[in-house]
Every structure is written in C-alpha cells, then in structure tokens.
Amino acid sequence: xxxxxxxxxxxxxxxxxxxxxxxxxxxxxxxxxxxxxxxxxxxxxxxxxxxxxxxxxxxxxxxxxxxxxxxxxxxxxxxxxxxxxxxxxxxxxxxxxxxxxxxxxxxxxxxxxxxxxxxxxxxxxxxxxxxxxxxxxxxxxxxxxxxxxxxxxxxxxxxxxxxxxxxxxxxxxxxxxxxxxxxxxxxxxxxxxxxxxxxxxxxxxxxxxxxxxxxxxxxxxxxxxxxxxxxxxxxxxxx
Amino acid sequence: xxxxxxxxxxxxxxxxxxxxxxxxxxxxxxxxxxxxxxxxxxxxxxxxxxxxxxxxxxxxxxxxxxxxxxxxxxxxxxxxxxxxxxxxxxxxxxxxxxxxxxxxxxxxxxxxxxxxxxxxxxxxxxxxxxxxxxxxxxxxxxxxxxxxxxxxxxxxxxxxxxxxxxxxxxxxxxxxxxxxxxxxxxxxxxxxxxxxxxxxxxxxxxxxxxxxxxxxxxxxxxxxxxxxxxxxxxxxxxxxxxxxxxxxxxxxxxxxxxxxxxxxxxxxxxxxxxxxxxxxxxxxxxxxxxx
Lengths: 239, 291
What we know:
The structure holds two protein chains of two kinds.
Chain A: E1 6-17, E2 20-31, E3 35-39, H1 46-54, E4 59-66, E5 69-70, H2 76-82, E6 84-87, H3 99-107, H4 116-124, H5 143-155, E7 161-165, H6 173-188, E8 192-197, H7 200-206, E9 209-214, E10 217-222, H8 231-238
Parallel strand pairs in A: 3-8, 3-9, 6-7, 7-8
Antiparallel strand pairs in A: 1-2, 1-4, 4-5, 9-10
Chain B: H1 2-32, H2 39-57, H3 63-69, H4 72-89, H5 97-119, H6 127-132, E1 135-138, E2 141-144, H7 145-167, H8 169-179, H9 181-186, H10 191-217, H11 223-238, H12 243-263, H13 268-282
Antiparallel strand pairs in B: 1-2
C-alpha cells in the first residue's frame, strides 16, 4: 500500500535561534485534511517548528515540502500565498487595525475567481460572531476574540493547511470545546491542520495523529489514543 | 488683525514644508524602524533638482510650465530613495540600530558631496517662479502669492496622505507591516516591497518639501542638515512614527518659528529645543506617539 501524498512533509530540520540550536532533526508529516497535533512542554520547540514551517525562521538543514514543492528556502509571504495559513500563539492581531482591516491585509491577495460571498463564508463561516465586532480595534479585543480573529484571518487566503500555535491556551473550558468544534469544521472543509498544543488531553480531542516533541526532538509519533499507554513519553510531555 | 493674518500665513508656510519633511521621516520610521539621518539631504536633493530645472535648464519659460516642473525634485528624490533602499539599507535591517545610523549618516555625507559635485558650492536659485507669481495685498503690504501656493500644496499633501494611509488597501498593508512585520509576511505581504514603497514615499515627501521651498529660499549646501534638525524637533514633539504627530508638531514648530523670527530671533532654536525637551519630559513618546 502506498502512503497517501502528504500536504506537508518536514524532513530532519535543524533550526537555531541566535547561536542556540532549538530543533534537532525534526521530521513530521501532515496529510490532506488531516489534523495533527504537536505536543510538548513550554520550550520544547513547538513554536520554533511552526515558525520554521511558516518561513519566519530559516532552517540550517533538512527540507520542508508543501504540496509536493520544496519550500525550504521560500520567504514567508510566498508560503502564505501558496496556502499555508498561520495563527501564532500571541495571535498576532494588529493592535491599531480594526478587525475588518485585519482581514483586509491579505484580502487584496486572495484570488479573483472566488466570489465575495465565498470569501465571506470562508472568513466568517467558522466563527460567525466575529462579524459583530468588525469595527473594533485589535487592541480592544478579549483574549478569546483575538484567538477567533486569528483563525478567521488565517482563513482569508483560502489555505490548504493551517498552522495553529496554542489555539486553546488561556481559553475557558467551555470556549475550548467551541474551538475544538471549530477545528473539526475546518477539517471538514478539507483543510489540513497542524496544532501546537501543550495539553495532551486537548490534543487527543482533536488530533488524527500526534507527535510529541521534547528538547527539539520528536520523541513520539502515532495514534493519539495510545500515547497514554506510553509512560515514558507521558512523563516527559507532562513534566 | 491683518498683521496677525500675515503671521498666521507665514506659520502655515513653515508648517507645510515641515510637515512634508518630518512626515516622510516619521513614515519611514513608522514602517521600517529606521531613523534616516540622510532624510534632510533628500529634501535638499529635491530642492537642487527643482532649482536646476526651473532656474537653470528652463529659465525664462512661462510660469505655468515652471509650476509643472515644481514636482521634478520630488520625483527625483523618490527615484533616488527607490534605488537606495534595496541596495544600501536592506543589508542592515538585521544588524543593530547603530549600524543603520552609521549607514544613513554616511549616506548624508555622500549626498552632500554629490550635490556639491553636481551643482557646485554656490546657491542655486529658482526665484523666477516666486517673482512671477505676483502678490496680494494684505493691509497695505504685499504678500507673495507663491507662499499661498506652498500652503495649499502642504494642505493637499496632508489630506492625500491621510486618505492614502487610512482609506486605501495599501494603507492597511502599510500600517499592518509597521505594527507587526513578521505577521504581515505570514499573511502573504512581501515586506521588502512594502519597505521600498514606504521609503520611496517618504523620500518623495522630503523632495516635495525641498522643491516647494526652493523658489522662495534657493538651494544651498547644508540646507539638508538644517531641515533634518527641524524635522527631528517636529517628530520629537509629535511622536516618531505618527503622521498626526508630524502634522501637530509641524504646526507647533511653524508657529514658534514665525514668532521667533519676529520677537526673539536670537533664541528661536533654543526655544524650539526647550519645547521638545518639555514634551519629552511630559510625554516621552511625543504628543501622538505610542509609548
């Protein structure tokens, strides 16, 4: 049986922040319409992995392949235009821009063939309540609202994969359920998702597959349900 | 009353030119976080090019044609900026700020010498335009029409710039890049392109400021540094990186300069510095700046 073509394939990347090596030969793979979780403690290398895939950090070794194309050396904006959507941990909402303007940043890039209605559905379909605070400036949003806008904004470029860095962090338990539901609906649209998550429990609620990372190395890859049986991994990622 | 009107017009005249130079400096800083010490010399470059076009090449041409040539300096400064940013500045963005200051300071010296080389050590005049424009009479005193034109251009430029930054899609991209360059690039924005566009626009504003003032003041070596000092006072008062701040700062400095010339010429600059110091003490980020 042949392995289905991967949406995103990361092969042995090494990433540095300044002189310090953070990632040591990280490899992972996200299939089409697959939700994959990258679990690890703070400082394990989750954000560095996400930022390397986005192109915000350059890698010193290894390759990143997206939709079958080598994007390892492409600048971030080219990767975004190819269909990598990104919602960072701090949400990256532009504080002095209104929510509507936050969406407009990439709007002018979105392909002409999509109708206005389709674009609107893409942006607001997951979190319709975002429409009620379009005029508010990023500065004045609550934490949960920022997280919603960040995901909705990542959808404006009609991505093939979404990179979500700690999308559930700091959310109230009820809202977490909302977001997990949102992730499932994004997946149902045929969009692949890579989520960096520090809680294994949350991760198993959304993930089709799971990777555990510690000290810049992948220490586990596989089915989210069986990770609980692996005592050594559980000990490491739970601290 | 009319006496006041003349002072008011003169203040606005200074403010127009100050807004263009300081606004350009502030725009470039706001988007790129670069303090461009050579900014004053792009203003001077605009002045020289316009003076050379109006006063030299096409001297004696009819006045309307001269008016059409007025923006030549702005266009030349913009082209120079578009060439300088990718070649000279871009390699230094990842370095510490000291390097950027050194590079732009070096650029200041190079441009100064370039202008000396191209146009010689003597002042270059474009006064024909100023003289041909005639004057109106305000309370029995003639007031040059050209000054009114400069005020009008300054106002129009301010309105256009405001609309450009706050009402266009490019303005959204510009503001997004200035607030979070990494996030903008992750949303598909080619930050290098935004940088060269912002730098070009900032240089265009500086060049326009120089081009507008040269029929009245003529182009001289050292005018760039003088303009830079005043532009810095404006942005310190208004807040570096803020266009509203550049406008407010330009109006304040314009009024104080006009009062200074009339009542306390000896300490005019000292008063300006004092105001800048007071603003810095009360609001370190400037009147409109974000701390």
